[in-house]
Write a structure and sequence with these properties.
The protein is about 35% helix and about 20% strand. The chain has helices spanning about 15-25, 50-60, 75-80, 95-105, 150-165, 185-190, 200, 205-220, and strands at about 5, 30-35, 65-70, 85-90, 110-115, 135, 170-175, 195. Helix 1 (about 15-25) runs parallel beside helix 8 and helix 2 (about 50-60) runs parallel beside helix 3 (about 75-80). Bound molecules: D-xylitol-5-phosphate and zinc ion.
Length: about 220
C-alpha cells in the first residue's frame, strides 16, 4: 500500500494555518490530519467545524478529522458539512460503533476507527470490514509532542496480519510521536498513513521536515520483510 504523510495541524501556528499547511503539502503531505478535542474525552480543547471549513477553502488534499470527543454522532453532520473527507472516532468513546461508522459513510465521508494505547486490536474485529482506515494511537491522545509508545508496533503488525487473513483493504494509520527516529519502525510494522505534528511543524523548515520524514518512511518500505 502507498505510504502517505498526514501532517497534523495541531502543531502548526494557527495564526498562519493556511501557509503552514501549504508548506507541509509542498513537502509531500498528501492528507491533512485535524485533531478535534472536546475537553471531556481528552484533557484538552482544540478546534471545531469552523476551522475545518476555513481549511477546506485553502487545502486541496483530503482532511482527516480525528474526533477525540464524546458523543461523536452529534457532530458528524457538522464536520461533514464543513468539508471533512475522512472522519475517525474512538472505539472507547463510541457506544454504538457500527451505527456511528454507518452514519459517517451516510454523510459522504470515509469512516475510520481509532484505538488508544491500552485498547487491544481485538476490540475492532467486528468493524474491520466497515472502515476505510484504522488509526493506532502511539501516544495517549490529548497532546502533541509526546513520546512514542513502542507497543503500538505490535498492534500495527497485528492489524496488517488480520487484514491479509481476511482479505480486507482498510488502511493502517499511526498517530503520536512519529518522527525521524520512529518512522522506520512504524513503516516496517505495516503502517502506511503517517500522522506527524511536531516532527513537521515543531521546528525549522516545515517543507524540509515533511520531505525528510517522507523520504525516511519510503526508504524503510524497501527494508520491509
Ligand atoms: C494527539 C493527536 C496527534 C498529535 C500528534 O492526541 O492525535 O495527532 O497531533 O502530535 P505529534 O506528532 O507531535 O506526536
Ligand atoms: Zn490525531
Amino acid at each position: 500500500m502507498k505510504i502517505e504523510l498526514a501532517p497534523s495541524i495541531l502543531a502548526s501556528n494557527f495564526a498562519q494555518l493556511g501557509s503552514d499547511a501549504q508548506q507541509a503539502i509542498e513537502g509531500g503531505g498528501t492528507i491533512l490530519h485535524v485533531d478535534v478535542m472536546d475537553g471531556h474525552f481528552v484533557p484538552n480543547i482544540t478546534l471545531g467545524p469552523p476551522l475545518v471549513k476555513s481549511l477546506r477553502k485553502v487545502a486541496k488534499v483530503p482532511l482527516d478529522c480525528h474526533l477525540m470527543i464524546e458523543n461523536p454522532d452529534l457532530f458528524v453532520p457538522e464536520f461533514a458539512d464543513a468539508g471533512a473527507d475522512w472522519i475517525s472516532v474512538h472505539q472507547e468513546a463510541t457506544v454504538h460503533l457500527d451505527r456511528t461508522l454507518h452514519l459517517i459513510s451516510s454523510h459522504g465521508c470515509k469512516p475510520g476507527v481509532v484505538i488508544n494505547p491500552a485498547t487491544p486490536v481485538e476490540m475492532l474485529t467486528e468493524v474491520l470490514d466497515l472502515v476505510h482506515h484504522v488509526l493506532v494511537m502511539s501516544v495517549n491522545p490529548g497532546f502533541g509532542g509526546q513520546k512514542f509508545i513502542p507497543n503500538a508496533l505490535n498492534k500495527i503488525a497485528a492489524l496488517a496480519r488480520l487484514r491479509a487473513e481476511r482479505k480486507l483493504d482498510f488502511r493502517i494509520e499511526v498517530d503520536g510521536g512519529v518522527d525521524l527516529e520512529t518512522v522506520a519502525d512504524v513503516v516496517k510494522a505495516g503502517a502506511e498513513l503517517l500522522v506527524a505534528g511536531s516532527a513537521v511543524f515543531g521546528h525549522g523548515d516545515i517543507r524540509g521536515n515533511a520531505a525528510k520524514l517522507l523520504e525516511a518512511a519510503r526508504a524503510a518500505v524497501l527494508t520491509r520483510a
